[in-house]
Specification:
Elements: E1 4-9, E2 12-17, H1 20-26, E3 62-69, E4 79-86, E5 91-95, H2 102-109, E6 117-122, E7 128-131, H3 136-139, H4 147-155, H5 161-164, H6 174-180, E8 183-184, E9 193-204, E10 207-214, E11 223-226, H7 227-232, H8 236-252, H9 259-268, H10 273-278, H11 286-298, E12 304-308, H12 316-328, E13 332-336, H13 340-346, E14 349-354, E15 357-361, H14 378-391, H15 423-442
Helix pairs in contact: 4-9, 14-15
Amino acid sequence: MNLLTTWMWNKKLAYYKGNLSDFVQHKPEAKSYYTLTDSNVQMHFPPPGILTGVKSNTRAVARMSNVTFTYPGAPKPSLKDVSCSLSLSSRVAVLGPNGAGKSTLIKLLTAELVPDEGTVEKHPNLRIGYIAQHALKHVNEHKEKTANQYLQWRYRFGDDREVLLKESRKISSDEEKAMMEKEVDIKDGRGPRQIEAVVGRQKLKKSFQYEIKWKWWLPKFNSWVSRDLLIKEGFEKLVQKFDDHEASREGLGYRELIPSVIRKHFEGVGLDGEIADHTPLGSLSGGQLVKVVIAGAMWNNPHLLVLDEPTNYLDRDSLGGLAVAIREWTGGVVMISHNSEFVGALCPEQWIVENGTMVTKGFKEIDQSKFEDDGGNSEQAKAAADMAKHAASLPHIGAHHKSHDDDSPANIKVKRKKKKMTRNEKKLQEERRRLRHIEWLSSPKGTPKPVDTDDEE
């Protein structure tokens, strides 16, 4: 049987004998239209930052437990009794018919929505890069800004402003405002008093404690209160908001928020530098806006990337570039897409959402241990080494917050007989040295340089 392939180029239609394979032999430049990995567009994502206490990339860093959610006025729940987990190695495709609750699931996971029942948990330092279904959702109020100016606005004060706008971080309802008027007794002999703000955080065994500023009390009377106690007393949003601040500050410490660096970052995701610097967002095409949003989501080195219909607006070449970037990236990925070729090539795990329920296919085992410090981060050390090396030459954002990561009992150094180190042990040793150097650079002037105790190992 004779086969014909048609090809349009420069507004002219040509016919070639044979199937697609035969055609590509005549027109190699057309291969990218049929094979995602042969795209002519190059995209590269910055590696995720270190996530304290996550030793294995299969450990759960975010999870939903028995979550039920109903939109106001809806006759039945959009999602009912849904449970799932994500790790740094996750590659998940969320599938299902339109209106099944796929986007609702993503919004609950990223804290854009608050569940009616159940819990949504994440590692305190976890950063999530979120790309919504409609790119205009992110940039609709910034049409007069260039892409470069938009990124400066979003991260100017050391936080991701879009995270702070999430519903789960707002203290808005009458019930929550009344909670802020509640008096708390932490059994320190000073009696019950009202919380004004959280102003600091440090390690406490395998969790955290927070520095609390009290209403009507001078700063010298600030107190350290454990995470568990604050959550027990109902101040979960206050804790989550400060966790987001610390996670964002940590992620932004590796690069300077200046036009030249931002331009290079945009070029890394396939957006021309001249367009990023000089063209207002309101004049960009849908595909270009998607690249702006991708760059914005990846600026603070997230650990999880969540994409809601990433194939919208992107042409074939850009879609291929995105596929390669996702495949190479070392963080976790969750995506909603109706493009079966795209998700099939990237996501071995599937969450099927239908009629308010969710089932998993191709499930990869995830360690469901509680989010806590287990003394290292061997899986991510290689990915983070380049960022840490670069960070040593930059001014550290939020340097007045002293890191207490080395306070963990797991990091206490013990003298022992020298032995030949494995390759992974050498990588970990180098990473610890880099982190100590970064902390020393951010400490007050005159602080003695730390002694390299790794030589004793």
